[in-house]
Write a structure and sequence with these properties.
3 helices; alpha+beta; 5-stranded antiparallel beta sheet; Beta-Lactamase
Length: 105
Amino acid sequence: MDRLVKLLYDLKCAVDIETAVIVSREGKLLKAYPENRDLGATEAALMELGKNAPDRIILETGNGKIIITGCGSRALLAAFIKPEADTGPSLAEMDRIAEKIKLLL
């Protein structure tokens, strides 16, 4: 398994998320877990935000939350959090994984 996909898998196992992705700051999808998941609106939002994204964005929807956090100057990490999930542990784990992604890129 690719090292970046393994980090996304670790994130999915650690907290209650459905999908996690890594995109470049230019909006190009680099990795996703699950890999064959249709990202739809999440991917479109990331492509728009990629160039000028702040450190963290939390989008609340009726189906859960999309959390986007920076992985240094080259990438963003985004995860779709299930509605019943506690956001605190998800944020902490995403920060931990984002630091590892930053080192790999």
